[in-house]
Amino acid sequence: MNKLLQKLSDITNIHKRAAFSDIPDRLPTRESEFYALAKERYSCREFKDTPLTDIQINHILEAARVAPSAANKQPVHVWVVKSPEALDKLRNATDYTFNAPVVFMVGASRDAAWVRKYDGKNLADVDAAIVGTHIMLEAAAWGLGNIWIGSFDPAKIKADFPETADYEVVCMIPVGVATAAPSQRHWERLPMEEFASEI
Ligand SMILES: Cc1cc2nc3c(=O)[nH]c(=O)nc-3n(C[C@H](O)[C@H](O)[C@H](O)COP(=O)(O)O)c2cc1C
User: Fold this and answer.
1) What is the reported pTM?
2) CATH number of 168's domain
3) For residue 175, which of 55, 146, 153, 158 is within the disulfide window of CB 3.0 to 4.6 Å?
């Protein structure tokens, strides 16, 4: 009887299938909510004047706060730039606020960050990039337009925002009610074969 069962198992490979049956498929047959959001996000370069509500700002900050960081050092600070005076100062340091009602400015402290012992790499800007990504995606989840800005003059930021003295400002993320569609570039991505490979 055992031999018969063994033979059946060999023919059907059922023993192998059973072993893998509790491993979920890497790609679910239907789109995940996260993937839908990731696809929905785009760089928005025109906003309404409408201010963000405190609830929206707080949810975005909360999503940013729970971001992971190397060795959980949490070397990142976020400044919510929204007063007319502060936004004016930002416009002096970058051409890319797009008159958004709020700009999240993300800074990282190199002194507080984890450093890889093998090559001395400081992970501060990596941690800040993860926080920035959480900000963008939470804003997108609220249906708000947003964009990552890397083009700004760090010296002007340092001069006009003394609170950033101990930080490297890594990005600015203007957020608001979107009035612009994605740019042509949004649709341009490397083909999967170029982007990823198995080794
Ligand atoms: C690190 C980084 C820096 C960026 N800096 C700027 C910038 O200074 N000005 C700007 O208009 N867009 C900036 N962008 C937006 C990119 O141009 C945009 O993400 C890219 O063209 C793809 O378009 P999409 O975001 O709509 O998919 C930046 C994006 C990243 C990730």
Assistant:
1) 0.88
2) 3.40.109.10
3) 146
